[in-house]
Structures are given as C-alpha cells and as structure tokens.
Design goal:
Chain lengths: 139, 239
C-alpha cells in the first residue's frame, strides 16, 4: 500500500480529505439536497481518486503510457479536463431546466387566463340570472 | 377569420393603453392578448382594466418566451392569424390590416413589417446608422443561411398564419428572437414576405438593447444562423 512515490504523510492526508469529501457527498444525499442519481458521478470519482492515493503506481504507469514525463502533470491535465466536462454537463442541465421553466411559466400564464375567463363568465351568468340581477330600487 | 394581436409587455403600464386603443381603432374585430412578462409595475392590472386577454407570466422570461406564450394561446384557441405588436408603442397599428391581408391572401406564411421597403414615410423612425448596419448584416446572413429575403429582420411587428402559429408555439428562440425566428420559419418551408410599416421612437422607458447588448445580439444571432440549419428538430426546441 505505501510506496516511495509519495511520502506517507501526504498519502494519509489525501485519503483523509477524500474520505471527508465522500462523507460530505453522502450527507448531501441523506439530507435530500443532492439526488442519488447526481451523486453517483461524485461517489465514483472520489472512490477512483482514493484508489489512486492508495496505489500511486497505477497513475505513474498510466501517465507514462500516455506520454507524460511527470505524473503530476497527468494529474493536473486529467483534473482540468474532468472539471471542464463537468461544467459543460451542468450547463447542458441548466439549458434544459431553463426550457422547462419557460414552458411551465407559459402554461401557468395560460391556465390563469383561462381561470379568469371562466370566473368572469360564471359570475356574469349568475349576475344575468332572473332575480339575481343585483339590488332593486329602494322603496 | 379570427385574428389575435399578441402584445408582449414588460413594465409598459404607461404605453399599453395607447397601444390597445390603437389596435381597436385599426382593426375592430381583432382580439388582443397582452403578455405581461413578469412586470414589476402595474402592466397586468392596466391590461385587465382595458378588457383584453392577459397572460401573466409569473417570472420574466424575456421577449421570446413571452411572445411564444402568445402563439401558444393563438394555437390553443383556434386563431387563423396572429400579429405581434410591441407593447412599447413603437409600432404604428394602422399598418396591422396590411400585415393581416398579406397573410390572408396566401401571399406568405410569415409577414414582417419593414421600415425599409416602400418610400420613406415622413416622421418615421429608421434607427441609427450603426443599428442599420447591423440590420443589413443580419439580412445578409439570413439570405445566405436560409434563403429568406428580409430587409428588416429585427422588426417585431409581424403577422403569422396558422402554420407559423403552430411552428412558433412549439419552437421559438428565447432571447433576441426576431431574426432567428425568421430563420426558423424559412427552414420549416414557410414563405416569408415583407410589407412596409412605420415605426416611431418609444413612447416611454428605455430600449432593452444597449451598446454591449447589441454586440451580444449580433454574435448570438450569427451563431444561431450558422448552427440552425444543421440542428436536429426537437419536440420542444431548446433554442
């Protein structure tokens, strides 16, 4: 488990930070602030990062395989790409939500107008009914 | 023949009575539908007091979302023609019958009221030269990408026949929608035509388009016109 690639202290701190992060994500799910579906990507990524922290040799081999001379550059590159993809996915979700809000708002406005028209016509019908045409002349 | 005037309005309580009065003067048989786009002033109350249909959108969607709500109302209530007229009083409503006539005669599916066709009317508002340059560019883009020949693509004074009503109810750009909606119509195979209209400077308030926004407008609409022909049609479009 321990390796001479990174100092043991750094390895311990990394794993501790990742564990806290994972607990935070799970807490968000438990308190219904993050849906289980949306939490999956964070849980899987955190577990993957924990694996890398436990066995840094995987990362070094993968980095060399792709052609990175220094493994840390591969980490930065992968992290930036991952975050960029994440932001793009969130922007897509934002666009979809905006379209849904637009559609719902339009539907609300139409329903309200229909309701007002129905109310107006029913109160008009009641007003026009015999004997209900409002107060008569005072004697 | 049932005609609906769609009047999008955002904080236009001062201009609205004159706009509605103008519509009633110009075309008595036209129903009026004011779309209050989440106004913070008394736009909705003023509109109700005028005895017209009011669509009160609970949040501010922007002009595209508001106009689309009007087209959806027109579609769901069986209107044959829908005419868009801005709530700020810039559009001379006496030209409304000409717009409707161009649709009814089968001349076109979408008819845009243009400031730049026909002889220049006295006292008419034709915008600043920078805006006119932008308008010429957008005309060129529209012709290039969609084959639509329109001299005033930013005009929001327009009439749509039944097929265009159904198209726009389903798919309408949310912001700065005028040029892009012409592209949407042209791509759907509708004929787009123009009739001369007169516009005036705003009665009250300020235009929503400032210098920086003009730049955003040009970039956004250019991108839309480049991408639109390659877009896959969706059931409820994300424009």
């Amino acid at each position: 488990m321990s390796s001479d690639l990174i100092p043991l202290e750094l390895q311990a701190i990394s794993i501790a930070v990742l564990a806290v992060f994972l607990l935070w994500v799970l807490r968000l799910v438990r308190t219904q602030r993050l849906s289980l579906r949306d939490s999956l990507v964070w849980v899987v990524t955190t577990l993957f990062a924990t694996m890398v922290a436990l066995f840094p040799g995987i990362l070094v081999r993968a980095a060399h395989l792709v052609g990175f001379q220094v493994a840390s550059n591969a980490v930065f590159g992968a992290a930036i790409l991952y975050l960029a993809v994440n932001v793009l996915v969130n922007t897509v979700a934002g666009s979809q939500n905006a379209a849904r809000i637009r559609r719902l708002s339009q539907e609300c406005a139409a329903l309200r107008a229909e309701l007002e028209a129905t109310r107006a016509s029913s109160s008009g019908a009641v007003g026009a009914a015999p004997g209900k045409a409002g107060p008569g002349p005072t004697p | 023949m049932r005609v609906l005037a769609i009047v999008p309005a955002f904080n236009e309580e001062r201009s609205l009575p004159a706009v509605v009065a103008g519509l009633r003067r110009s075309a008595r048989s036209v129903d009026v539908c004011v779309v209050d786009d989440g106004s913070t002033d008394g736009t909705a109350e003023v509109a109700r007091s005028l005895g017209v249909t009011v669509l009160s959108i609970p949040v501010n969607l922007g002009i595209g979302g508001a106009v689309q709500a009007g087209y959806q109302w027109a579609r769901d209530h069986g209107y044959d023609v829908a005419v868009q007229v801005d709530g700020d009083g810039q559009h001379d409503t006496s030209f409304l019958p000409a717009l409707v006539e161009a649709v009814v005669s089968g001349h076109a599916g979408l008819v845009v009221g243009s400031r730049f066709v026909g002889p220049p009317a006295s006292g008419a508002f034709r915008s600043t030269w920078t805006r006119r340059a932008g308008i010429r560019y957008l005309s060129w883009m529209l012709r290039l990408r969609c084959g639509a020949r329109v001299t005033d693509p930013t005009s929001g004074f327009r009439a749509a026949g039944r097929p265009a009503i159904e198209l726009f109810a389903r798919s309408y750009p949310p912001d700065y929608p005028e040029p892009e909606s012409i592209a949407v119509a042209a791509r759907a195979g509708l004929t787009v035509a123009e009739v001369p209209v007169r516009m005036s400077a705003r009665l009250h308030g300020e235009s929503s388009i400032s210098a920086w926004r003009s730049l955003y407008y040009l970039v956004k609409v250019s991108l839309a016109l480049v991408v639109l022909p390659t877009r896959r049609p969706a059931s409820e479009d994300l424009l």
